[in-house]
Amino acid sequence: MKKPKMFVQICCAPDALYVMALLGKDYDVSGFFYNPNIHPREEYDLRFEETQKVAAILGFEIIEGPYDDSRWHSITTKFKDEPEKGRRCDVCYALRLEQTAKKGAELGFDIFTTVMSLSPWKKADVMNKIGKMFGRRFQIQFLEANFKKKDGFKKSMELSKRHKLYRQDYCGCIYSIRGQDTLSPINTVGIK
């Protein structure tokens, strides 16, 4: 039986390694690296390079979206003083999930999702609501998930160490760099 084709928004290699392997059991997965929030550009390039390593390890296609950071800044600047997990993050999720749904529908995928719900610093319930909304808009099914359940984050950390992947210490945006001192020490485990 042919597996449904799934388009998966990927934010970083460590999250992708665990989630894409999990999803690959039931779906024909392809990755979409669309992250205009990542700052600076060197960090973006490093994360994409590491994600390409994961694509090679697991054998899936990875498509890179545009690095339209000016668009990201224009829609998030009014929320620059929000804390992590605030409204700025919701806007950021929406931008990335909208583009994933749109591109996935254009390319003929059956379903889409994101690896972001693996992170303990991301709100799975909010992402799931946003994903469903864009799924309806672009007529592509959305897989609701919370990949941090069943020790998903812990497993991703172990896999990252085993494969010697770069593990970032901030979500990616310029505002989260500023707030690094408020992040949990667990977020720095495995950083090269």
What's this, in brief?
The protein is α/β, with parallel strands linked by helices.
Would you mind describing this structure in some detail?
With 192 residues, the protein is of the alpha/beta class. It has one domain: HUPs (Rossmann fold). It is 46% helix and 11% strand. It contains seven helices and five strands. The chain has helices spanning 13-23, 41-58, 69-76, 87-106, 124-138, 152-162, 174-178; strands at residues 5-9, 28-33, 61-64, 111-114, 141-142. The chain has a five-stranded parallel beta sheet with strand order 3-2-1-4-5, sandwiched between helices. Strand 1 (5-9), helix 1 and strand 2 (28-33) form a beta-alpha-beta unit. The longest helix has 20 residues, at 87-106. The termini are far apart. 42% of the residues are buried.
How many distinct domains? 1
Task: Give the percentage of residues in beta strands.
Answer: 5-15%
Strand order of the largest sheet: 3-2-1-4-5
Radius of gyration: 15 Å
CATH superfamily membership, which one? HUPs
Major sheet summary line: 5 strands, parallel
Q: Would you identify the regions where 5 or more consecutive residues have pLDDT less than 50?
A: 181-192
Class by SSE composition? alpha/beta
By CATH, the topology is: Rossmann fold
Order of helices and strands: EHEHEHHEHEHH
CATH architecture: 3-Layer(aba) Sandwich
> What percentage of residues falls in helices of 4 or more residues?
40-55%
Distance between the termini: 41 Å
Provide a count of the helices: 7
Reading off the top of the CATH hierarchy, the class is best stated as: Alpha Beta
Number of strand elements: 5
Q: Give the overall average pLDDT.
A: 91
Shape: globular
